[in-house]
Amino acid sequence: MDDIDRKLIAILRADARTSVATLAKKLGLARGTVTHRLRNLEEQQVIVGYTIQLQPEAEPDDIHAWMGVQVDGNQTREVVATLLGDPAAIALHDTNGRWDLLAEVRASSTAELSRVLERVRLIKGIRHTETSILLKSYR
C-alpha cells in the first residue's frame, strides 16, 4: 500500500459512495487506474467492505455503551466467539492496557442494557467489566 492507496482509503472513509470518477479527479488519476487500485485493495482484503455510518441521533431511542472486558487467563478466543454471537454487541475490539477487549454495545432501554450487561458478565472467562454509556459523539 502506497500514499495514493492511503489517500484513496481516506476519501472512501469520509464517503464510501464516492464515484470512481470523483476519486480519479481528487487523486489526479485515470478512472481505470482508480478501478484497478480498488480491485487490488479488495483482493488483498485491505478493503473488506463498504458500509454506512449513522449518527447516534439517527437512533435516538437506542443506548450505546462501551464495555471494557478483562479476560481470565487464555480464554480470549472463547470470550470473543461468545460476544460476537450476542446481538447487542455491535463491535468488538482487541486492545492493550487495562482491558483485553472493548465491546460496543447497543440496547433499546436502560432495562435492556442491564440485561445485556448481566448476560455478558456471566460469560465464562470474563474476569471483570466496566461499562460507560455514550452520551454524545464528536466528529
Automatic annotation (TrEMBL):
Residues 1-70 form the HTH asnC-type domain. PROSITE patterns: HTH_ASNC_2. Pfam families: AsnC_trans_reg, HTH_AsnC-type. InterPro entries: AsnC-type_HTH_dom, Dimeric_a/b-barrel, Tscrpt_reg_AsnC-like, Tscrpt_reg_AsnC/Lrp_C, WH-like_DNA-bd_sf, WH_DNA-bd_sf. Keywords: DNA-binding, Transcription, Transcription regulation. One of its GO terms (cellular component) is cytosol. GO terms for molecular function: sequence-specific DNA binding. The keyword Transcription regulation applies. This is Winged helix-turn-helix transcriptional regulator. It comes from the Bacteria.
